[in-house]
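Researcher: Excuse me, tokens okay?
***
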Amino acid sequence: MSRESGILLESGTNELEIVEFEVQNNKYGINVLKVKEIIQPIPVTFVPHAHEHIEGIIQLRGEVLPVIDMARALGLPSQQKADSDKYIVTEFNQQKAVFHVQNVSRIHRISWEAIEKPSDVYQGSASQVIGVVKMDDQMILLLDFEKIMVDINPESGIHTGQIKRLGERERSAKRLVVAEDSPLLRNLLKETLAEAGYESVEFFENGKLAFEYLESVSRQIASGEGPQLVITDIEMPQMDGHHFTKRIKEDPALKGLPVVIFSSLITEDLRHKGERLGADAQVSKPEIAKLVMHIDQLVL
């Protein structure tokens, strides 16, 4: 991660940097904070009976990493290898993976406000697109890399079984607010939080909508009748989780509201960014049981 990228997160500016890459002449983007490095393709070892999106494995600096064919993951036929091909080495959700793409062109700095939510007309429930960036006469699609990984390995996602292992629990009437842009994760969080006893949960698809709601109920919050805790992702169109956290902690009527960041970007290198912005706890996806334990500590 570059020093400049760290400054963006640290200051909560509601900006991000994306790496633009191509797959079969279509342009896509990935948050630079998920990218460890970009390398030239190296020989891949075939793994029998692996998932159809997995090309094989490589050894990189002593680590064995899966190589994912990005074309297949996007529902496109595989292409012939070309000189422009690149490997994007990533780390998120406490796992590392390599994505094989056709080309990596440049890095863009943009505001989350400039990212449009995909329309329900073309998105569909199985879509991997979480945002659309219009750049001059072209569009860059931001992809849900967490969903791509869960499609390959469902066990890497969120499951109610993680909550059941916590044992018998008293149900709680505490009210929570969740900001999460992924429809898949909103449904999973709704299911798992209900299993944990938290059934009074308001869901919003980005920090901007969630913050507007909190402002509208600030009097109830002050009197103890409103939401008692906020859970937020980091990567969200319109307003990201770091900026959302900053806005809450700078608001006199809301600053006492506990904020838990629940994101695939929680690593030891980045954890201090959320701390500086006032987050009360930070949990890496998909550790839902740890998330629930933090909620218990902060609201019960």
Observations:
- Residues 262 and 294 are 11 Å apart (CA to CA).
- The chain has two domains: 3-154, 157-299.
